[in-house]
Amino acid sequence: MSDPASVTRLDVLILGGVVVDGSGTDAIRADVGICGDRIVAIGDLAGTDAEETLDAAGQIIAPGFIDVHTHDDRMLLETPAMTPKVSQGVTTVVTGNCGVSLAPYTGKNDPPPPMNLLGGREWYRFTRPEDYTAVLHEKPAATNAVLLCGHSSLRACVMDDLSRAATTAEIDRMARILDDAFSAGFAGLSTGLAYPTASAAPTQEVIELAKIAASHGGLHTSHMRDEEDAVLEAIDETVTIGCQAQIPSVISHHKVCGQQNYGRTRETLSRISEARQHMPLGLDVYPYIASSTVLLKDFLARAERVMVTWSTPHPHMAGRDVSDIAAEWGVSPEEACDRLNPAGAIYFQMDEDDLKRVMAYPETMIGSDGLPHDERPHPRLWGTFPRVLGRYVRDEKVLSLTQAIHRMTGVPARIFGLTDRGAVRSGAFADLVIFDPDTVCDRATFEDPVQPADGISRVMSNGQWIWRDCAPTGVHSGRHLRRAA
Ligand code: ZN
Ligand code: CU
Hints:
Number of helices: 14
Radius of gyration: 22 Å
Bound molecules: zinc ion, copper (II) ion
Helix content: 25-40%
Low-confidence stretches: none
Largest sheet: 9 strands, mixed
Distance between the termini: 26 Å
CATH topology of the largest domain: TIM Barrel
CATH superfamily of the largest domain: Metal-dependent hydrolases
Shape: globular
Number of domains: 3
CATH class of the largest domain: Alpha Beta
């Protein structure tokens, strides 16, 4: 805490709130002073001169949330107000997850599923990583961004056929592009070995690329090859990649799918704990028992219910269940899938107790995995962070408020190497959220998913308000953040 007496004039003074600083330690009653883009004082600041003084009595002041798992590559450019995220208190997004990044892409045609979750060829227009970062620097968004380079995107750049392993020459070409991505300030490599664009890649292909990422001080995020019956083997593969390439790794949206696997997070979490003894391994989760991605026939059998989120040939089917559509058309669900594609879907296929167990696990981070371009998106896009704070902290008491905030701020700042972020302390960047702990909650539902949360009163990135009076301010003060390894 800096000496409040030494601060003579502030840009912003937040009085009377309760500071939860992101480190996991107890909340304290304190005023917060901001000058420029930094927090400069914390303590009793009553009477200090300030450009703007704000009363935060009864409210929590926390570091802005870091959404560690997003597909916001395009939203940052297209709708830089980033309303689905900023309205939740998010000030930093990690993009390019699940092996899919908008940049780079050199294909002539529309990218194949799941890459089309981010759009068609018109959005995949950045042939080099630096072409994307240049646009982001020129026209920043409201939130900060940490960029990952997707393995499937790399494959689509250098391979004519994604249904096979890459050759040595192709791995080499991917490695050079990955070098360029790190030069442009990307923070790591993401993979999605469960998807048709990457499932033919052997472990060794990923290890070779992960070694390149490690040589630049990057990290690896993994949408694992399997989140069903073979989930333990998939964890082992992620660990093997991490150990062989000597790279810090993150298991994305950790879950076990399919009724026959309900309860198995007991096994997966103990396997993760074992691995954590000898390697840096993190994980993230979203607070829902349904997943969402492209509509794939192979994914039908495992889910109790499948709801369409978008369909190019049948846009009006968004929001309806595949089983109902199949019945109406008088065809099998598989045939309905064929007719609906290209399309996206929500799959109800997880167990609430597993979700709570993953959320209660020490150091599990929160990542929305929101899909901003879906017609009827999974509610996690708008609801993730307030839902953790409302439903799982306040109502269900799965974790404490200070713990939850720690996992949304201090933990991801450390794992992603974000210097002076994810903390309310003197000298840190002024990325802040002010919210009411008694009312904060998600309002987005599966039926009505485009709904801002309740209880988030103000959000600031780099010393500037980006959310106030239930609306974006129009200020786009986010930055492209590089990883300090
Ligand atoms: Zn994923
Ligand atoms: Cu994802």
